[in-house]
Amino acid sequence: MKTETLNYKDGDVTLRGYLAYDEQKGGKRPGVLVMPEAFGLGKNAKSRAERLAQLGYVALGADPYGDGIELNDLPEAIKLATALMEKPVNFRRRARVALDTLAALPQVDSSRLAMIGYCMGGTFSLELARDGAPLRGIVSFHGGLGTQLPAAAGQVKARILICNGADDPFVPPAMVNGAAEEFTKAGADWQIINYGGAKHSFTNPDADLLGNPALSYNKLVDERSWIAMKSFFEEIFA
């Protein structure tokens, strides 16, 4: 497997992505954009990109903030994420430039693109789906489901899979129901899997180290949601 840092731009901001693919595999293949948590493009998102490459995809872990910033402090991460999400149009553009970068790679079949995201990254993926991005599908893992710009009827091109922790205090049942109603009205192909006993950040093995009771790793749910994603990709890329 080949991995490398891939620089790209959003206006004056230099973003440092993490590209992973099997260099022994010829021809164009589906590309998957990986959007990380609010802590930036760290080891968890990079490892997911590598696992996707092992499955035969070209995966790009995207940089949400610029200069490859990684954070360890939760309040600081929330501060940067809040500022980034303040203007939905700019928030969507930050992910869209990463998607365009992935689509332009010579190894990638630009007609077969997908996107996954974790926490804030899940919100990124849903926002691009709402914006009508040319994606076959998106997967949100414990992402925020609210939006300032709900999807319009007929606008969503991507199939949607939301993997949600049923015990996530940041995503209450009303928000889950709201997303279901929104995407139904928009005519989207959507599904939501609620995992019992799972809290926020259920895919991050380091979540419990942050000392926040709302965040907790759940190995079983992490594995189940990854299997759900693989099945979903087999469907959308068939």
Question: Explain this structure to me?
Answer:
The protein has 238 residues and is of the alpha/beta class. The chain has a single domain, classed as Rossmann fold (3-Layer(aba) Sandwich). Helices cover 34% and strands 24% of the residues. It is built from six helices and eight strands, in the order E-E-E-H-E-H-H-E-H-E-E-H-E-H. The chain has an eight-stranded mixed sheet with strand order 1-2-4-3-5-6-7-8, sandwiched between helices. Helix 3 (88-103) packs across helix 4. The radius of gyration is 16 Å and the shape is globular.
Salient structural properties:
8 strands, Rossmann fold, eight-stranded mixed beta sheet, single chain, 6 helices, alpha/beta, globular, 238 residues
